[in-house]
Amino acid sequence: MGQCGITSSKTVLVFLNLIFWAAAGILCYVGAYVFITYDDYDHFFEDVYTLIPAVVIIGVGTLLFIIGLIGCCATIRESRCGLATFVLILLLVFITEWVVVVLGYIYRAKVEDEVDNSIQKVYNEYNGTYPDAASRAIDYVQRQLRCCGIHNYSDWENTQWFKQTRNNSVPISCCKLGVSNCTGNMSRPMDLYSEGCKVLVVKKLQEIMMYVITAALAFAAIQLLGMLCAFVVLCRRSGDLAYEPLIPGGTYA
């Protein structure tokens, strides 16, 4: 029974280390996705500290790759020192991932306030020219999220751009997908997106932060199982006959 339990723990541990390598790639992808998406919405979100969870998750992903390498080598070679190092680093990463979860929830709660404070300013800076960063950001968001204005398309009437153009039109990016010959004229509201962008921007940013939180929680659970298996192997008694190497030539460092 003892031999079966220890061997099973070591087998699961090797398998988990392979999962850690896959997790490393997934976490780095999630972090990179947050960075890329933030770049598209950065005009609506001025607090750069919101990227801290993404930075940490990329760091954790990189560290997980190293952990997987250490764990595989230590488990296969039956190295006590290697397994102890593996458990210690895994514990630190486990704690870090919980920090990411907490920070993720904190910044997720701040999203709406951040958007409230910046969205009106961004719309007032719109001038309709492509080189202008604010104009590109608004046109991108309105096309991607299929929205128009802050609360609805009528919000454009209060912008400097609308007053200067004097053509009773909103930007072409407000035109519904598939509507031909749409000029953005407010006399044809059926051609325009009716939903405002504020709610959708908040929802999108909160979803992005939720990806980070979910990824951190999922892999924290896997790491907990990895630590438990490593502890089972480490806590064997010296000279226990039930402790058999997974491969011939294993060491007992």
Automatic annotation (TrEMBL):
Compartments reported by the entry: Membrane
Keywords: Glycoprotein, Membrane, Transmembrane, Transmembrane helix
PROSITE patterns reported in the protein's UniProt record: TM4_1
InterPro entries: Tetraspanin/Peripherin (IPR018499), Tetraspanin_animals (IPR000301), Tetraspanin_CS (IPR018503), Tetraspanin_EC2_sf (IPR008952)
Membrane topology: Multi-pass membrane protein
Pfam families assigned: Tetraspanin
Broad class of the protein's primary localization: membrane
Annotated Gene Ontology cellular component terms: plasma membrane
Transmembrane parts of this sequence: 12-36, 48-71, 83-107, 208-234
Domain of life: Eukaryota
PANTHER family (UniProt xref): TETRASPANIN, TETRASPANIN-3
Function recorded in the entry: Regulates the proliferation and migration of oligodendrocytes, a process essential for normal myelination and repair.
Subunit-structure text: Interacts with claudin-11/CLDN11 and integrins.
Family in the record: Belongs to the tetraspanin (TM4SF) family.
Name of this protein: Tetraspanin
